[in-house]
Design a protein that fits this description.
mainly beta; Neuraminidase; 27 strands; globular; metal ion binding; zinc
Length: 303
């Protein structure tokens, strides 16, 4: 496998997680910027966002691709809560929404301290029902992925929505452009990407925080940086390894922040998720396309 051009193996642990005979499959092309992949085990399908085309797409294992929602209000990141409902970040509405089982849409957050959010980007749901999301300004920088506007919030924050009261609280306020986020498999830590380097001369990295009582964050620290591109979306496997997007593919980091290896992808990767019946298939959104590859590890996300 050492000479397999698909993989850049930096550590034997990565070699044990990839399959030499597995192919990187392009499932669909023809999008403008793909984002927010989310797997629905109960419906046996993948949803993802095509932000500039203002639509959410759906893929099923028989190869069928269809439009799940259009217009999507420039939806970016997607996830599911523990009840299986779709939770989405809308650039167009500058809000976080939940799609109910009957198809109606509930607004979870669209403002903070009386001012509109910037453009919610990515979202995760804690097992206690709390919704955590990032709010950079990418969706209001131009009319390509939303509606051009001046930010009303003085900072680009990470927020938590309380499941009981619906109150929104800024839990981190010192990011340049917070982007992807994910809890560790045991939910004791929250990882957040800062992709400010895409627009500013600053390091590109992922930070990690301790989660206190499921509500607060403490002990902010550097987790890892990328040697190519900047981090966007990422997810964890059951062993606690972090798989993140980058400009040259997917990078895999150990729980200690060591780069274990890369999967090379021909387009800039924006996001990824684990799926399939055994959650051993990595689905990758990359510029205009969606790819997948089978692994020897399994994703840790729920449901």
């Amino acid at each position: 496998m050492a000479d397999n051009p698909l993989y850049d193996i930096r550590d034997e642990r990565f070699g044990a997680m990839v399959i030499g005979s597995a192919a990187l499959e392009e499932l669909y092309s023809g999008c403008r910027w793909t984002e927010g992949p989310v797997w629905f085990s109960d419906l046996n399908c993948l949803l993802w966002s095509d932000i500039p085309n203002e639509r959410i797409m759906r893929w099923t294992p028989d190869g069928t691709v269809s439009v799940f929602r259009s217009p999507s209000n420039y939806v970016n990141g997607n996830t599911r809560d523990r009840q299986g409902r779709l939770v989405s970040c809308e650039h167009g509405g500058r809000r976080v929404t939940r799609t109910e089982t009957d198809g109606t849409i509930t607004v979870l957050a669209d403002s903070y301290k009386g001012k509109r959010l910037n453009s919610p980007n990515d979202v995760v749901v804690h097992s206690d029902g709390g919704v955590w999301f990032t709010d950079p300004t990418y969706g209001i920088l131009s009319d390509y992925e939303g509606h051009k506007a001046e930010p009303e919030q003085p900072t680009r924050n990470v927020y938590r929505i309380d499941p009981a009261s619906g109150a929104i609280e800024a839990v981190v306020e010192d990011f340049i452009q917070p982007n992807g986020l994910a809890f560790s498999p045991d939910e004791t830590k929250l990882y957040v990407a800062d992709s400010g380097s895409a627009k500013h001369e600053v390091p590109c990295h992922i930070r990690v925080f301790d989660v206190i009582d499921g509500r607060r964050l403490a002990n902010s620290r550097y987790f890892c940086g990328l040697d190519v591109g900047h981090p966007d979306g990422f997810r964890f496997d059951v062993q606690g390894n972090l798989w993140t997007s980058s400009s040259d593919g997917v990078h895999c980091f150990s729980p200690e922040g060591e780069l274990l290896g890369k999967i090379r992808v021909p387009q800039t990767v924006s996001n990824l998720t684990f799926g399939g019946p055994k959650k051993n298939r990595l689905f990758i959104t990359a510029t205009r396309s969606v790819y997948s590859i089978y692994l020897k590890t399994n994703g840790a996300q729920y449901p």
